[in-house]
Amino acid sequence: MQKAEKQDRLATGLILGLAGIAALIVISLVAYLLITGLPHVSWHFLTSSAASFTSGGGIFDQLFNSFYLVVLTLAVAVPLALGAAIYLSEYAPQNGWTNALRLAIEVLSSLPSIVIGLFGYLVFVLRWGLDFSLLAGALALTIINLPLLTRACETALQQVPALQRQAGLGLGMPKWQVTLKIVLPQALPGILTGEILSAGRIFGEAAALIYTAGQSTVNVDYTNWNPFAPTSFLNPMRPAETLAVHIWKVNTEGLIPDAAAVSSGAAAVLILTILIFNLSARGLGNYLARRLRK
């Protein structure tokens, strides 16, 4: 017995040590990015446009494009992912077709984003004639985030107790009403958590957007609310450089004198935004779960 207890303590200590090393690496990386980047972040930096060949530029356009792309991508991806999750969780029979569909979702989640970016360039940009645009970038990011969103929604739906479904069916409700009025409200915390986590991934994506959304930004008119105007900030057909692409571009081109400061500040803003997305997902999920238990 003593030998088994020693082995258990040794294994537990080894696991905790490895987990501590991994956590230390992550915390050190985040701390380094924040320490080196936050001194360069200011109100002027956040609210001014980027400079091409001079120092003192900001990241306002890129920051806005990133948030706008998050909205566009979720508007396309959430209905598709939720529909697929409802089918897999509530309607799909357990057969070879369902297993093949789940395998396809897993394979899609393992594809590198650069491959999906090239696919988006060939299909959305060239074949569909969308050119470099926010819409083409949103469609490419939809492909990237569909597996994550589908799994999150399906898991949330499966966590709803079967007794609640049986109670609704026992009252004479059709299956679609049980799903819509009983299952979905109970699964809402998990679904929203998955959406917010997916938003953080969209915000930090760069590789796929280089080939779809483009690396340049038109002179955006933030006072024009007409989504069909070429320079309107609401026009999804305009090319748009996001914050993550801007960091890559600044470091690779080196055309501005303060490239290191701009990239460090932009990286700090990117890290903080993704942290806010993740903390918001946890906070909102816990809040909704408490409300549903009342």
UniProtKB/TrEMBL annotation:
Compartments in which it is found: Cell membrane
GO cellular component terms, semicolon-separated: plasma membrane
Membrane topology summary: Multi-pass membrane protein
Top-rank lineage group of the source organism: Bacteria
GO biological process: phosphate ion transmembrane transport
Keyword Transport listed: yes
SUPFAM superfamilies per the UniProt record, alphabetical: MetI-like
Domain ABC transmembrane type-1: 63-281
Alphabetically ordered keywords of this record: Cell membrane, Membrane, Transmembrane, Transmembrane helix, Transport
MF GO annotations: phosphate transmembrane transporter activity
Statement: the UniProt record of this protein carries the keyword Transport: yes
Transmembrane residue ranges: 12-35, 41-60, 67-88, 100-125, 132-150, 259-281
Family listed: Belongs to the binding-protein-dependent transport system permease family. CysTW subfamily.
NCBIfam families: 3a0107s02c (TIGR00974)
Protein's name in the database: Phosphate transport system permease protein PstA
